[in-house]
Amino acid sequence: MTNQSTITIRRPDDFHLHLRDGEMLKLVTPDSSRDFARAIIMPNLVPPVTTTAMAEAYKESILSAVPSEHSFQPLMTLYLTEDTDPDDLELGAKSGLISAVKLYPAGATTNSDSGVKTISNVYPVLERMAEIGLPLCVHGEVTTADIDIFDREAVFIETVLDPLRKAVPGLRVVMEHITTKNGVDYVRAHEKDLAATLTTHHLIINRNHILVGGIKPHYYCLPVAKREEHRLALVEAATSGDPRFFLGTDSAPHSTDTKENACGCAGCYTSVNTLSCLAHVFEEQNALDKLELFTSVNGANFYGLPLSDQQVTLTKQNQPASYLNTVGSSEFNVTVFDPGFPLYWHVD
Ligand code: DOR
Ligand code: ZN
Asked: Domain 6-347 carries which CATH code?
């Protein structure tokens, strides 16, 4: 399958993606549908996607933003609130529309105000999910002011996630966009019903990229990038082939002006160049043979989806790929993630 300059893999899936709605949805959807077969779509719209009927309508809008020459399947999620109706959720899951439920602790990130304040209030819903085998995708950060932002993931694992998994045995959990060695170690220590997604950007940046030499708002995302030792643990996990780790880009578009702002939004927009970035990262680890597991196999297996029968080829060229710095128009645009190194791997 691989030699030095070409790699052919099953068409990747993105197990954590923000497509937004309205003009932004139209702008960014083709950047994902070009390279990806399927994606788990995050429900943090305004208002959030909290019911099966809302998810159905959202899926239709996404499909109408997919160019006719692309084939792309949005996998819908529901935004968990303390009012989520377990019967609605079960109907949505059984009809095949709903692939997962997303837990945002209230206040953790973009549009998370309607998230969960008291986790035990949602245990009945989580029990129903365990019964029917519907995965819970977790934004794993505590949100209280007394916990330092760089510690929020590690504290969440100890004080919320571990008790939650013990309270609801059999619940299938995906720790979304883990950013710490603590997250990697927690997944490794628990064989059953647990996996984690890793983003493209957290495999590339550490916290210095955000703060050294001036504030770089386009590297600001949540959970915030941590120390280099944590990035190295994430790279090791992604390139290990371990079936519990897979790609969820968390590509999260915000218009450039809302990022370059006195109170800048959190999110990196990586849909455009993710595959080139990942090929670079995996090649550096001599792990190109594990790329397909990470992008196209492990996640599908965890979610019980058939593997894609289409393929994508990447070739390493002498000239870097010429990705745009921004997508959109001069009035409304999104800045594309800059990995900080030239991308020699081109998607054919
Ligand atoms: O950086 C992020 N952006 N992290 C999230 O959890 C949410 C996302 C967004 O929706 O903008
Ligand atoms: Zn996200």
From this structure: 3.20.20.140
pLDDT < 70 regions, the chain = 1-4
Residue nearest atom 2 in ligand 1 by C-alpha distance: 267
Q: Which listed ligand is nearest to 252 at the C-alpha?
A: 1
**Contact yes or no for 77/42 (Cβ under 8 A):** yes
Q: How far apart are CA 187 and CA 92, in angstroms?
A: 28
Specify the residue for token string 């819908």.
Answer: 76
Name the residue ranges covered by the structural domains of the chain: 6-347
The CA distance from 12 to 14, in Å, is 7
Pairing of strands 326-328, 311-316: unpaired
Q: Determine the distance separating the centroid of ligand 2 and the alpha carbon of 247, expressed in angstroms.
A: 12
pLDDT of residue 109: 82
**For residues 309 and 239, is the Cβ–Cβ distance under 8 A?**
no
Q: Residue 3 and residue 10: Cα distance in Å, rounded?
A: 16
The answer to whether the CB of 101 falls within 8 A of the CB of 80 is yes
Q: Exposed, middle or buried: residue 88 (CB in 10 Å: 0-12, 13-18, 19+)?
A: middle
pLDDT at 28: 98
Protein residues whose CB sits closer than 6 Å to any atom of ligand 1: 18, 44, 109-110, 139, 221-222, 250, 252, 266-267
Q: Is 250 a catalytic residue?
A: yes
CA 207 to chain centre: 19
